[in-house]
């Protein structure tokens, strides 16, 4: 397992459209996923210890952000060949068990992850209401273990700021996680 950190936020970069199948049986695009105040595009998976360490906080934060008009979508781009826990059936199971408040979609071709420049799980891309990138940072100071209660909610505070002002914070701490499991070419 390779641990990577995300690049610095490329402020203003436009969101890239997608059309992906969701575990809810529907198809999801940029237009269907966005909220009136913006969209949080998250690259996650089921097996990654970094994602497992934050998943409950991520669910909490996305529920609170949705109430502010900031929607979220989770994209799974890993190749499940070597990681069966990332299979479609496990995606469906996890989303149901944890009652995801956001669409969980499969990027089977990995084209969306490549287009966004996603490098790890979790990797967060926070867009304002004009679908301009304003956040590319961590959820909080959790790593492979959940950080203690009461730590700064970096992603939540940043996306709340984006919802209220359209602008993300100038200072952002990169997310850290497992490398995306790219298919062999």
TrEMBL record:
Gene3D superfamilies: Glutaredoxin. InterPro entries: AhpC/TSA (IPR000866), PRX-like1 (IPR047262), Thioredoxin-like_sf (IPR036249), Thioredoxin_domain (IPR013766). This is AhpC/TSA family protein. Signal peptide: none annotated. Pfam families: AhpC-TSA (PF00578). GO terms for molecular function: antioxidant activity; oxidoreductase activity. Residues 9-144 form the Thioredoxin domain.
């Amino acid at each position: 397992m390779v641990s990577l950190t995300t690049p610095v936020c490329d402020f203003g970069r436009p969101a890239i459209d997608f059309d992906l199948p969701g575990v809810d049986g529907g198809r999801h695009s940029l237009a269907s996923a966005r909220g009136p105040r913006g969209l949080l595009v998250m690259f996650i998976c089921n097996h990654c210890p970094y994602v497992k360490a934050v998943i409950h906080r991520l669910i909490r934060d996305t529920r609170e952000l949705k109430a502010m008009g900031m929607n979220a979508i989770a994209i799974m781009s890993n190749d499940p060949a070597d990681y069966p826990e990332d299979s479609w059936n496990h995606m469906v199971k996890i989303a149901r068990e944890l009652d995801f408040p956001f669409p969980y979609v499969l990027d089977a071709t990995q084209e969306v992850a490549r287009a966004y420049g996603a490098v790890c799980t979790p990797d967060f891309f926070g867009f304002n209401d004009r679908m301009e990138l304003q956040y590319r940072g961590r959820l909080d100071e959790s790593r492979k273990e959940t950080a203690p209660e009461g730590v700064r909610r970096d992603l939540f505070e940043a996306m709340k700021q984006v919802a209220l002002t359209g602008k993300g914070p100038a200072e952002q701490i990169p997310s850290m996680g497992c490398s995306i499991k790219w298919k062999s070419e």
